[in-house]
Automatic annotation (TrEMBL), chain B:
Span of domain ABC transporter: 1-231
Origin: domain of life: Bacteria
Name this polypeptide is given: Multidrug ABC transporter ATPase
One Pfam short name: ABC_tran
Lineage, uppermost ranks: Bacteria, Bacillati, Actinomycetota, Actinomycetes, Micrococcales
Keywords assigned by UniProt, alphabetized: ATP-binding, Nucleotide-binding
InterPro entries, sorted: AAA+_ATPase (IPR003593), ABC_transporter-like_ATP-bd (IPR003439), P-loop_NTPase (IPR027417)
Stored PANTHER family: ABC TRANSPORTER G FAMILY MEMBER 20 ISOFORM X1, ATP-BINDING CASSETTE, SUB-FAMILY H, MEMBER 1
A GO term, aspect molecular function: ATP binding
Amino acid sequence: MTVPTGQPTGQPMGQPMGQPTGQPTGQPTGQPTVLRTPLPTVLPTVLPTALRVLRQVRHDHRTIAVLVGLPCVVLGLVAWMFSGTDVLDRFGPVLLGLFPVIVMFLVTSVATLRERQSGTLERLMAGPARRGDVVVGYALAFALVGSAQAVVLTAFTVLVCRMDVTGDLGGVVLVAVLDAVLGTALGLAASAVARTEFQAVQMMPLVLFPQLVTAGLFLPRDQMPAVLEAVSRAMPLTYGIDALQDLAAGASLGDVTGAVGAVVAFIVGALVVGTLTLRRRTP
Amino acid sequence: MRARGLRIVRGGRRGVVVVDGLDLEVLAAQVVGLLGPSGGGKTSLLRAIVGVQQDVSGTLEVLGLPAGDPRLRRRIGYMTQSPSVYADLTVRENLRYFARVVGLGADVREDRVSRVLHDVDLHRLSGRAVGGLSGGERARTSLAIALLGQPDLLVLDEPTVGLDPVLRRDLWALFHGLAANGASLLVSSHVMDEAERCDRLLLLHGGRVLADSTPAAMLAATGTATAEAAFLALVEGGAR
């Protein structure tokens, strides 16, 4: 298709100018029309947004190195420190799920805050993009990044550190991946509250630490005071860690479907909250 | 575009009234300059027009629809004051993404991206990361994105700040070319000499329209020789 030169009106420069915009209703005849993508899909901007976020991550080599390399280093240290004991076999699977949730929460809340501060979110909100498109696009991109992190970390822990999982290893990978998506979804929901990068970083201890305390890492949940045990039931991370603890103790994926379902439900819920708290109009 | 008794509060519950009791009527297919000192309510008015400003009361109609109507979102191109672009992507990657967001089909997308890159004279830099560009180049990337969807109304918040005289002249020629083809442009600036390049002028000061005329009429009415002198005469006259 050739690029037409618009009507040369008021053009002292001879520089090409924008195509005619036409009247609101139709395009002038003889001029090319801009075809709208015939995509009556539910969320038309989801994939472009996800690809754009992934492209941004790809341009940032250090972040990739930290995202994938750092958890492996930490787990390697744990394995080294407790070599000759069964600590890695007992707690390794839980750590595999913890890293993705914490790291992806941080990455997501800072990334969305950057989108807000750079003005690109305002531009998207002034345009035809739907709010859910942006949220789900982000979730998709970071879910993929988190999944890569979870898979690499699991492979490293099993193959290099020789972690021996009694239960279903495929189940461990699946729950670790879901935990990564959960971290992303919670980060998206939490980023609505944060106004500055400083606040965004504070959201991590605020949202995740109470969950870690009540998730049964330090004390089995059935030995907790009744109130705390009830609180733990309302926390998404509880279910991710429950599933991983059961898998480490020899359960199969079929045994933990309830917990896995709960994690998925929390992911959906957090995405809905993230969409609803994203405002088109801001003060 | 039409406004009646427009009132805008900026900054939420404890915010400030930046525009109060503003009346306005702007015809299509013109380059309208929105001028005035910073803090005069220019950006808030533009944000209200594109539908991203909270706490707007009164009547505001854009292209025959209430401001913020979902049907307007494809018909307005908006360039924010600070360049809203992804610094870690290249110029072309930025444009490709927003081309998909505004719904350009795969068959026309690349042509349209190349076209706007030429329009803003960035085609030679299209492969560079935006973060490594100068302020003026970033601003032009942001402008190119606003042009992508061939909008009926272009809302440009200080599009020529930090640009050299040659580029500024070329961009104003581009604006007039778009208006000649039926688009309406609302261009804000705090640089007074740009006033002379507009078809119509709105002088905003303290949240009110201080003057609404053509550049020539404004000079005649104030008996001044330059837009800057006219502006000073009006502001100081209005402050009294």
